[in-house]
Amino acid sequence: MTETSQKKRIQDYIDETREQWVDLSMHIHDNPELSFAEHQAMAWLTSPLEEEGFEVRRGLIPELPTSFRAEWEGTTDGPTIGLIAEYDALAELGHACGHNIIGASAVCAAISLKKALGSHFPGKVVVLGTPAEEEGGGKIMLIEEGWFDDLDTAMMCHPRDRTMILRGSLACVDVDVSFHGKAAHAAANPDQGISALDAMLNSFMCVKQLLPALHSSANIHGIITKGGDATNIIPDHCEASFLLRAEKLEVLEQVKERFYQGVEHSTKAIGATCEMNEGLMYAERINNRVLAYQFKENLRELGVDVDDSVIEKGIGSSDIGNVSQIVPTIHPYIKIGEASTHTKAFTETAGSLDGMRGLIQSSKALALTAYDLLATPSLVKDAHEEWKQSINHKGDGHG
After folding, report:
1. How many CB atoms are closer than 10 A to CB 379?
2. In terms of CB atoms within 10 Å, which of 2, 113, 162, 280 comes out highest?
3. What is the C-alpha separation between 369 and 302, in angstroms, rounded?
4. What is this structure's pTM?
5. Tell me, what's the pLDDT at 312?
């Protein structure tokens, strides 16, 4: 069959089975599960893959029982194309980041490829289920255990309020801080107490004063998670959570060092002590332009307008950045409405007719781009050449 006819078969299959993918996405949307607990979502995503003959393995590592990998291999050697699924939700908000669409689109894209091509293609298609993107860094854990090692490319498509292909992301790390003082009655004998709350408030003020002296890309957000137990008792134990961000991992290391120093000195000034518990470090994203522009061409063939400018401001963080450090990766966005992510309005949009339109568009674009990579090995080679240059010259605008 010609390339045109095969790509048409992919689109036709997705159109013919549209309700199946809409139902899958809505099941996940209407039953949100938090990071590390996405048991229903994993079952719903893996079931159709298994039914279509994909080799499915669930619970890839003990720390991620809701992770999975589904493979389908062609008859000859070729590239291994990774389609990344996310499916965790946000506390209180549900699927305010549209992961119901991300997970369903990866599965739909993989199955539509198999339906269109059968086994007569070079290479392998892998759907990698990566839980705990919102809290925990599931991709980082899977990287450390080698589950991304054999991928030649990695792709996912994220719903948003704008269709774009080159939006970057910041490096970040969570730090939980426990402050320890000495309890005393706040009125009868305050001189005998050491306020863990004052140590914590000192630390927040220190962070505010530190920011102007840090790298221009640096930011530190914090919340108080435990401020004491009673107003008339000097708190002996308080807790806070901070999120540190910067444009690159090496800058984040500098920010983290200054943050640690500031918190430790602010705590010591009160006479208290503190313990800091650091999470996994999310790396900045390196968008692969070869893959991104191929994805853009497929979107335009579908009649979708694309913003291909490099977006480096107003950006957040994702563990897909860590994937992009080890394999050519793209993380484009598909517009599903006007609402901003991580809001109740976006939760509604992710389950709306516009959200489902975005699901079908992203599924087709992922499947068509994966087809291009399987059918044209030179694209994969070019993507790797660009990726090597990006890794060797971070900071050259690849954001």
Report:
1. 18
2. 113
3. 12
4. 0.91
5. 67
Q: Looking at 220, 244, 278, which one is the last position of a domain?
A: 278
Q: Give the pLDDT confidence of 258-287 residue by residue, as tens digits.
A: 999 999 999 999 999 999 999 999 999 999
More confident residue, 3 or 64: 64
8 A C-beta contact, residue 97 and residue 342? yes
Pair (301, 255) in one structural domain: no
Count of the separate structural domains present in the chain: 2
Q: What is the mean pLDDT of the chain?
A: 95
Answer whether residue 398 is part of any domain: no
Instruction: Flag whether 397 is in a domain.
Output: no
Same structural domain, 149 and 43: yes
pLDDT over threshold 70, residue 368: yes
